Amino acid sequence: MKYRQYILAAVSVIMLASCEDDTKIEPLEANMTSDRTKVEAGEKICFMDRSTGNPARWDWEFEGGEPATSQLFSPEVTYNTPGTYSVTIRVGRGDNSSEKVYTEYVKVAYPDQVNAEFEADKLNAYNTDDVTFTDMSTGFPTSWDWTFATADGIIVKSTEQNPVLKFAPGLYTVTLTASNPLATSTVTKADYLNVIDHDAVAAGFAASTPLLILAGQSVTFEDQSMGRPEQWNWTFEGADTPSSTDRNPTVRYSSPGRFKVTLKASNEVNSSTLEKDGYVMVLPAAGLSMWFPFDGNLNDNGPNNIHIEEYTSDASKWTLRLDSPSRHEGSYSVKCAGVTKTNTDDYAVMKIVDSDCSLLPGGMLPYTMIVWVRIEDTSVSQAGMFNRGRPANTLPNGASGQSQEWCRFNKKASSSEGYVRWFATSSEWTLNTQDRSLFDSEWHCVAFVKDVVGGKAESSIYIDGTLSLKASGKAVTDLYKDPFFIGCTWQKSATKDCQINNPFPGSIDDLIMYDHALSAEEVKTLYNIMK
Q: pTM of the predicted model, to two decimals?
């Protein structure tokens, strides 16, 4: 009996003690703190629960914050927008909960710098179009001041953030000033918006194919008229089809020359006419052996499909530039590279594949070779132009002598060498012009004409369509046609059978060869077509 009484007494004591512990637990009351209450836009605040009553769950709300809610004990919140914001914390344990709102607790300040920026949904518009401007400024601007102005005095203003406007015809410069309470910034974009009368027409065109072509080839024209053209009337001087009403016609030219193109674009209200004189350039195709336009590539546009390859001493160091500017807008030339000196090992020039040289005229036969050149490094004294055949002591089977022709340009003429020196084994001809230096960084056309009259060579050099020198040579010899280097000369040295000399210090364009000797009039005509 006493044993049972002791047990009951012990249990009673424990229960009483338990009741006393419950009465000591603090009531549930929401509370919190943070590492700061003032930040600049884009900064973070760390919040920490300080609630009493041992909460087991949390439910936060952050006005203006990211994230906007959280169930973490101690969340981090980013405030990206200036302003003053409240924070709410709710805590709970079992069926009990408590909530507290901290009104205007967080203050997010404006940055002290604004960068004004904008864009429009169109840069070319009709006067009937809506144009939407989108503010892209940073620094949380709160006000915007737009000005749209033309040179002849039209001014439009707006204070909207993203205005949508219609404009009278004109070319508008757009200025935006964006501000917040602490800073201001202005951006101006000159001639940014071009507004065209809905009924206006401004004729314009270009070509989607090359404009320098061979007789028998075609040119495709592309209408680029502004406004609202509905009809197109083309006139093509010198073309097989002299007119067209297609919007983008393709026209064939069978006769050589330089020809005007005219476009009249119109609608039911207005019309506009544009003429481009000498726009299409057509080269004669008769007797053509090769033509390298060098328009971004090394392709032959002639009938023989002659292959030119890059010939370089070190491809990692020296390479041809195929996108060098040409004398015509929108076209290219090829630029050689290297150290311009005798016996150089630093070069990138061009070489016609040996097997193709047999397709080219030369030796006992007449020919004409035309090339456009621009010497860009005028500090050098010599510029190698081309080399055909083999120099001294390089003939097959140990034969002596030489069988070659070559040309180089000299910065200064001397008694023995002129500005242009064209040489073909001393037994055939040597021409030295005395009247034109090519070292002026300008484009020049040089024509080499070899005729054969009575078994003798008659050789002429033309510069920019004008005869510079003509000489009757000695008996014609059967010169080698290969190798054929372009943009240098070469010789045999003490260590090499093929030693490159004087890589061309500039750009080369439109290398052409015909299988006959052109007359002075024909050379002049070709120059006028191509210039």
A: 0.66
